[in-house]
Design a protein that fits this description.
The chain is an alpha/beta fold and about 325 residues long. The chain is about 30% helix and about 25% strand. The chain has helices at about 5-10, 15-25, 100-120, 135-145, 160-165, 245-250, 250-260, 270-275, 295-315, and strands at about 1-5, 30, 35-40, 50-55, 60-70, 80-90, 95-100, 125-130, 150-155, 175-180, 190-195, 215, 235-240, 265-270, 290. Strands 10-9-8-11-12-15-13-14 form an eight-stranded parallel beta sheet. Strands 1, 2, 3, 4, 5, 6 and 7 form a seven-stranded mixed beta sheet that branches. α3 runs parallel beside α4 (about 135-145). The N and C termini lie close together (about 10 Å).
């Protein structure tokens, strides 16, 4: 059994190999039970939760992520997500590795958004707007710029100083990164807009984006959170990471369904279907696409398997 920490993960993982591993893992999918969610407190808006996320594939691995979500942590200088991943041998139940799940989650979340973008966004996308300033944002930027020819990255958050701090993380890169005090004056020029927030109210409305944009909705992961206005879902072709989780947890999508702006049939496919077909989905540049990310246990397992294999190779064990 190996203990693989966050420093190891940063050294070992890259988005190209991770995206490839995610595709392979989904193709080997055995079964993925619905994740279990437990409320830690009774806070209605900023509820702390504990999640169990298991996944099984047809070859020799299975695993489970133990995930804590504490919405008030960022105000204390800590990550919202605290997690641990346990990777098992399917042949005998041995624990192969215990892995820092917090860092693993950052990589796999960013990789899934980038993977969806490969299938959904315009191939010549050059302008990216990130809404949010949390610890996940640098990973989102790195992943998106690996799969599209991004030239300009703009970052907006309610705290401009935090947006500037994100910019300072990027040195010697082949694209420009800029913090902006307002996003409404540039958002209609964006090819990709990625939202990474814990907002309880919509941030993006139809007036904020152009036809043909790819909306990457990452942040709102429970029924009390919203990033995209409920009517704005009518503007695009909707794809989700996990259909069951999205219908139970994605606050903005659920509200759009409940208000009748969209119907279940308007959700075109989930990521498993897209990967299985492995074909570029977008049919024309003017087509707006929406990807609702809620997390998928298969992508966690893929990241765990990849980092485990790379760790063994690096240590020559």
């Amino acid at each position: 059994m190996f203990l693989i920490n966050s420093t190891d993960i940063i050294k070992l993982l890259d988005y190209k190999s991770l995206i490839k591993e995610i595709k392979n893992t989904f193709k080997k999918a055995d079964f993925c039970p619905a994740r279990e969610i437990y409320d830690i407190d009774n806070n209605i808006i900023n509820k702390s939760q504990f999640l169990l996320m298991p996944a099984f594939i047809k070859n020799k691995y299975y695993g489970v992520k133990l995930l804590n979500v504490f919405p008030n942590n960022p105000a204390k200088g800590m990550d919202r997500v605290k997690a641990l991943y346990v990777l098992f041998d399917k042949n005998n139940g041995n624990v192969r590795a215990i892995i820092d799940g917090t860092m693993l989650t950052k990589y796999r979340t960013a990789a899934m958004s980038a993977l969806a973008s490969q299938y959904l966004s315009n191939k010549n996308s050059s302008n990216l707007l990130i809404i949010g300033t949390g610890s996940l944002v640098p990973y989102m930027i790195s992943a998106h710029t690996k799969v599209r020819p991004i030239k300009n990255v703009y970052i907006w958050g309610r705290n401009y100083k935090k947006a500037k701090n994100v910019v300072n993380n990027f040195k010697n890169i082949n694209f420009k990164v800029k913090a902006v005090k307002e996003f409404t004056n540039i958002s209609r020029n964006m090819d990709i807009i990625s939202t990474v927030t814990s907002s309880s109210h919509p941030i993006i409305f139809e007036k904020h984006f152009k036809k043909g944009v790819h909306l990457d909705l990452v942040g709102a992961h429970n029924k009390n959170m919203m990033e995209l206005d409920s009517k704005a879902f009518m503007c695009g072709h909707i794809y989700v990471e996990d259909i069951d989780a999205a219908l139970n947890e994605a606050g903005d999508l659920i509200e759009s369904l409940n208000l009748g702006h969209i119907k279940r049939k308007n959700i075109k496919k989930d990521i498993a279907e897209i990967i299985k077909e492995d074909a570029y989905v977008r049919r024309k540049n003017e087509q707006t696409t929406i990807f609702k990310s809620v997390g998928h246990s298969f992508s966690d397992l893929a990241a765990a398997i990849l980092v485990y294999k790379k760790y063994i190779a690096a240590t020559k064990i």
